Amino acid sequence: MARVTVEDCIDKVTNRFDLVMLAAHRAREIASGATLTIERDNDKNPVVALREIADETVAPEALQQSLIQSMQKHVDFDHPEDDDILELLQAEQDVPGVQQPEAPAASEMDAPEAVATPPEPEQV
Fold first, then answer.
1. Which residues 6+ apart lie within 8 Å of 10 measured at CB?
2. Is residue 74 classed as helix, strand or coil in its secondary structure?
3. Radius of gyration of the chain (CA)
4. pTM attached to this predicted model
5. How far, in Å, CA of 22 to CA of 25, rounded?
6. Residue 95 lies in a domain
7. Which of 20, 65, 74, 88 is 20 to 30 Å from the Cα of 53, by its Cα?
8. Is the dihedral of CA 57, 59, 23, 45 positive or negative?
9. Position 111 pLDDT exceeds 70
10. Residue 17 lies in a domain
11. Number of domain units in the chain
12. Could you tell me if residue 114 is inside a domain?
């Protein structure tokens, strides 16, 4: 019976909300094929999960960590070091078949650009 099981679990997990979250997570694990730590006795997965918590065959701390990991969406990636970024930029410049734009020569940068002026109209 589930009521007796919940009352037995309150000693192990004092917060009822946490108990529901942990038992639901364990029931989902059982449904997805996790091995049982107690006999099923014709009980459904939520009752089996509560009985496992009450009998302390699964640790509530381990269930909590498993629950947290299953809920996380953000994964930390190692960011490349500055040297790695420079190597990547250099590798992009050395791609065969890609012509890199040439930098203007120093003499072109110092000389003023010649501005073409339109010819003046001839007067008749």
1. 16, 19
2. coil
3. 36
4. 0.56
5. 5
6. no
7. 74
8. negative
9. no
10. yes
11. 1
12. no
